[in-house]
Each structure stands twice: as structure tokens, then as C-alpha cells.
Amino acid sequence: MTDNKETMYIDANVFINNILYDVSKNIEAQRSNDFLKKIVQGEIVGITSALTWDEFTWIVKVNLGREVSIIKAREFLVFPNLFIKNITVSSLIKAQEIITSYNVRPRDAIHAACALENNVRVICSFDADFDLIKEITRVEP
Fold this sequence. Notes:
There is one protein chain. The chain is α/β, with parallel strands linked by helices. It has one domain: Rossmann fold. It has six helices and five strands. The chain has a five-stranded parallel sheet. Helix 3 (about 50-65) runs antiparallel to helix 4.
């Protein structure tokens, strides 16, 4: 899947910032936008979970409305060079281990578990809670 390209797990907030905020006025939105372009261009291979689609779609709906969320959710599903992984019972068992060890939120534990199950050790996120999990490294866009 990687062809010697860096593979990263992409947290929902990277996608959300790019949609909710003006990239000319918000530094996190600009950094997210620039990072996502690297995925589109194939410089980075992105993976994420089905949970990200849920978070992304819900936040866009709450902030920008149903119609926009439908359009953006469709775009998310065909995002170039992004592989959306399933959450399985084994993912949840791994997430339970992460919660037990690190006292992080369930959604963060699920994201980390999905990354680890797919042999990805780097998570791109603005969420510093991932810094608590020793098996992964968090980078910001």
C-alpha cells in the first residue's frame, strides 16, 4: 500500500478544520488543507477508520447543515489516497486495552487501535490526548 511513502492515520479533526474554518484566517485550517493536499498528491498515504466518517459527517451537519454534510460526506468517501478501515471487535478489544492503560476517551482509543491494527504508528491530529499513548506518535499537520 505504501510504496515507500509515509503512511499516517488521519484523525477527524484534520478533515473537519479544512471544512469548517477559513483557510486564509485560521492556521489549523491552513495546515490541515496543506497536509490533505499531500495525501491527494500521493506524497503521503492516509488511513483512517469508518469512525472518522461518522465524526466528520456529524460535525459538518451540526455546523453547516444537512445538505452540506451530505455533499462533504460523499467527497470524504472518495478522498484520493485515503484508505478507510473497518472497526471490528478486535479493534474494540484493543481500544479497551488502550483505555485501561492510558485513560483516554473511547473515540481516541478506537482511532489509536485502528492505526495500530494496520501497523501505523503515526497519527496526524491536533488532539494532544494521543500523546498519552506510548505505542503511537502524534504529529500535527
